[in-house]
Amino acid sequence: MKFQNIAFVAAETPNGQEALRRLKHRYGHVAPENADVIVALGGDGFMLETLHAHMDRRPAIYGMHRGTVGFLMNAFQEDDLPERLAAATPVKLHPLCMRATDVHGVTKEALAINEVAMLRQSRQAAKLRIRVDGKTRLEEMICDGVLVCTAAGSTAYNASAHGPILPIGSNVMAVTPISAFRPRRWRGAILPDTAEVVIEVNELEKRPVSVAADYTEVRDVARVEIKEKRRISLTLLFDPEHNLEERILSEQFSP
C-alpha cells in the first residue's frame, strides 16, 4: 500500500508531543480528515481514542509507541516512515456495539474496540443473568462483574480477569466473569462473533451496576445488549516482522 497524505496525531505527553513535532517537520502533515493514513503517537489508550475519533471515515491507522504498554503500537523510529507504511500489514477489527438501558428506561449506544465491561458500583456483589441469542445460559451469577471482549481486546482487561486470549481472525468473542462468587466453577465462555449477548441485572436498587464500552460509561443499568458490528471495519497497520496476530500468539506463551 502507498499512502500519499499522512496525518500525525499524538498523546498530550512530552514523548508524544516531541515525536509529533519532529515527524511533522520531516514528512509534512495534512489534517486527519484529509489523510489516507493516520500515524498515532502514544500508547494503547491513545490508539483507542484515535480509532474512536475517526470511526466515521475509518482511515488506516499506524501506531508508533510513545506511551506505556504499546501492545497495539509499532516500534518508534523516525527513519523510512513512508517505506514502513507501504510495507505494513493491515489488520481488520470489528467493534462491539453496546446498547445499555438504565433503571429509568433511558437507552444509550456505544462502540467498544476492546470490551464491554459491567461492574458493581456499590459494596455489594452484582447479580447478573446472561442470555445468548435469546436463551438463558446463566440464570444468576453473583460477582463483581462480567465483560465481553473482541479478539483484539482479549489481551487487555480480559487477560487481567483470567479470560482466554483470542487469535485475530478467529471470529469469536469471550465472555469472562470478574471475581465470580457463584457459580464458583464457571470460567466464562467463547462465543461466535455472530452471537448476541444480553446481560440483565437482578435486584437493581440493592445491587446497582455500571457498564463501560471502552471509555463510554453508563451508570445504574438494568439491561445491556452486546453484538459485534460487522459492517464497521477498522484498519490497523503493523510492521510485518511484528504484526498483531504474532503478538497475540506470543502473549499466550509469555511467562
How would you characterize the overall build of this protein?
With 255 residues, this protein is α+β, with helices and mostly antiparallel strands. It has two domains: 6-93 and 233-251, Probable inorganic polyphosphate/atp-NAD kinase, domain 1 (Rossmann fold), CATH 3.40.50; 96-228, Probable inorganic polyphosphate/atp-NAD kinase, domain 2 (Tumour Suppressor Smad4, Sandwich), CATH 2.60.200.30. It is built from five helices and 17 strands. It has helices at residues 14-27, 44-53, 81-87, 157-160, 244-251; strands at 6-10, 37-42, 60-65, 89-93, 96-102, 107-112, 115-120, 126-132, 135-143, 145-149, 172-178, 189-192, 196-202, 209-213, 216-218, 221-228, 234-238. The chain has a six-stranded antiparallel sheet, with no helix packed on it. Strands 12-11-10-7-14-15 form a six-stranded antiparallel sheet, with no helix packed on it.
Q: Tally the helices.
A: 5
Strand percentage: 35-45%
User: Structural class, from helix and strand content?
Assistant: alpha+beta
Low-confidence stretches: none
Report helical residue fraction: 10-25%
Q: At the fourth CATH level, what is the homologous superfamily of the largest domain? A: Probable inorganic polyphosphate/atp-NAD kinase, domain 2
Strand order of the biggest β-sheet: 6-5-16-13-8-9
**Sheet having the most strands:** 6 strands, antiparallel
User: What CATH first level of the largest domain would be assigned?
Assistant: Mainly Beta
Question: Ends: how far apart?
Answer: 36 Å
Number of domains in the coordinates? Answer: 2
SSE sequence, one letter per element: EHEHEHEEEEEEEHEEEEEEEH
Radius of gyration, CA atoms, in whole angstroms = 19 Å
Under the CATH scheme, the architecture of the largest domain is: Sandwich
